[in-house]
C-alpha cells in the first residue's frame, strides 16, 4: 500500500474548479509518490457519460466497461440498447459491472441489438403492457423510456411518441426522444414532453433540426426549453452540427448534459472518439470549463439518480490538456480548431492505479 500525492493543477469542487495544493489517495501495490501536475491538469472523481451504449451479451453495438474506464468514465447511462426482450438480462449483467450503470428501456422490444435495423418493430406490434410490466418491476437503475424517431416515417414517429408518453405516464418515469432525421416539426415533437423529459441530439443539422428555413432557432423550440425539457448532446456519428450549436448558443440555449452516444463503431474514432474529447469540443465551442464539467459531474449524475457524485477515498481521474492545436469536426464536415484537448493521464479506480498513461488501454 502506498500513497500518491498529486500536486498542482485544478480540482473539482462544489464551486467548480479550484487550485489544487495537494490531493492524496491510497493505492495498492505501489510505493509512495509525489506527482506534479501541469497547470492545465484537472482532477475529477470520474467522468459521467449520460448517453452511451454499453456492451452486454447480445449487444455487439456496445462499448465495453474496460474501454469506458480507460477513458476516465466511471458512470454511464445506456440509452436504450435493449427493449423488453432483453433489458432484464442486460440489467442483471450490468449490476456486476465495475461501472456505475443506469439505463433507458427502448420502446422497441429489440432495442438496438440489431443495428442498423431495416425493419424495426411496428408500433402496432409493440406491447405497451410489456413495457409497463418491465419498467414497473425494474429497480432504480431504470431511468425511463427511450424512442428513436426518424427510422421509418411520420406516422410511425407519431405513434412512437404517443406510446412513449403513455408508457412514461403509467410508470411515472421520464422519456428520452432521439430527434435526428424525423420529418416531424420540433413543435409537434415537444408537445409530448413534460418538464424533465430528455431531448437527445438537439444540436444536429439534419431532418428534425431546431432551425427554421431562415436559419434561426424556432421559437417553438425556445418555448420548449423554457418549459423545462432537458437537452442532451448525444454527439454520436450523426448528431452534432456546429452551425446549429452556435445558433442555439446565440439564443442562450446550452446543453444540460454532454454525452457521447458512443458505440463500438465510433469508439476512439472521430468525430466522437471518447468522453474527454467531447468535453474538450464543447469548451472549444464556447462553454466555459466549469460549465462543461458541471454538466458531466453535477447535472448528469442527478439525472441518473446519483445524488452524491463526489470524490471517494478510492477513485480519482486526472485529465491533462495539450496546448497543441486540435481539430474538432462536426458530423457534417465543418471543423473548429482549438488549443484545449483533455486526455486521461492518471486513473485510480477502487484504489488500483493503472499505468502512468491510460492511453495504452484498448
Question: How would you characterize this protein structure?
Answer:
The protein has 362 residues and is of the alpha/beta class. The protein folds into two domains: 2-44 and 312-360, Urease, subunit C, domain 1; 47-303, Alpha-Beta Barrel (TIM Barrel). It contains nine helices and 18 strands. The strands form four sheets. A seven-stranded parallel beta sheet has the order 7-8-9-10-11-12-13, sandwiched between helices. It has a six-stranded mixed beta sheet with strand order 3-2-6-14-17-18, with helices on one face. A hairpin with a 2-residue loop joins strand 2 (10-13) and strand 3. The longest helix is centred in the middle third of the chain and has 18 residues, at 154-171. The model is unreliable at 355-362 (pLDDT under 50). Residues 42-261 form the Amidohydrolase-related domain. InterPro entries: Amidohydro-rel, Deacetylase_Atu3266-like, Metal_Hydrolase.
Amino acid at each position: 500500500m502506498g500513497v500518491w500525492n498529486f500536486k498542482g493543477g485544478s480540482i473539482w469542487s462544489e464551486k467548480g474548479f479550484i487550485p489544487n495544493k495537494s490531493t492524496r489517495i491510497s493505492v495498492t501495490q505501489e510505493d509512495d509518490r509525489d506527482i506534479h501536475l501541469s497547470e492545465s491538469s484537472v482532477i475529477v472523481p470520474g467522468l459521467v457519460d449520460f448517453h452511451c451504449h454499453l456492451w452486454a451479451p447480445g449487444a455487439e453495438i456496445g462499448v465495453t466497461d474496460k474501454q469506458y474506464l480507460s477513458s476516465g468514465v466511471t458512470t454511464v447511462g445506456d440509452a436504450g440498447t435493449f427493449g423488453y426482450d432483453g433489458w432484464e438480462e442486460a440489467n442483471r449483467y450490468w449490476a456486476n459491472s465495475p461501472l456505475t450503470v443506469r439505463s433507458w428501456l427502448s420502446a422497441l422490444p429489440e432495442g438496438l441489438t440489431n443495428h442498423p435495423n431495416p425493419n424495426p418493430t411496428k408500433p402496432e406490434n409493440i406491447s405497451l403492457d410489456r413495457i409497463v410490466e418491465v419498467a414497473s418491476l425494474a429497480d432504480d437503475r431504470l431511468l425511463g423510456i427511450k424512442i428513436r424517431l426518424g427510422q421509418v416515417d411520420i406516422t410511425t414517429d407519431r405513434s412512437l411518441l404517443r406510446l412513449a408518453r403513455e408508457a412514461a405516464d403509467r410508470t411515472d418515469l421520464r422519456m428520452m426522444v432521439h430527434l435526428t432525421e424525423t420529418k416531424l416539426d420540433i413543435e409537434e415533437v415537444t408537445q409530448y414532453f413534460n418538464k424533465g423529459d430528455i431531448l437527445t441530439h438537439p444540436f444536429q443539422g439534419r431532418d428534425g433540426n431546431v432551425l427554421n428555413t431562415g436559419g434561426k432557432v424556432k421559437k417553438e423550440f425556445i418555448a420548449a426549453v423554457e418549459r423545462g425539457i432537458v437537452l442532451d448532446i448525444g454527439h454520436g456519428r450523426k448528431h452534432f452540427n456546429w452551425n446549429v450549436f452556435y445558433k442555439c448558443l446565440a439564443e442562450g440555449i446550452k446543453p444540460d448534459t454532454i454525452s457521447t452516444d458512443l458505440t463500438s463503431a465510433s469508439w476512439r474514432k472521430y468525430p466522437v472518439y471518447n468522453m474527454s474529447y467531447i468535453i474538450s469540443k464543447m469548451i472549444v465551442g464556447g462553454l466555459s470549463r466549469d460549465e462543461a464539467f458541471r454538466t458531466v459531474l453535477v447535472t448528469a449524475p442527478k439525472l441518473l439518480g446519483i445524488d452524491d457524485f463526489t470524490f471517494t477515498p478510492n477513485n480519482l481521474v486526472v485529465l491533462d490538456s495539450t496546448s497543441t492545436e486540435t481539430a474538432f469536426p462536426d458530423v457534417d464536415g465543418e471543423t473548429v480548431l482549438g488549443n484545449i484537448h483533455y486526455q486521461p493521464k492518471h486513473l485510480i479506480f477502487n484504489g488500483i492505479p493503472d499505468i502512468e498513461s491510460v492511453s495504452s488501454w484498448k
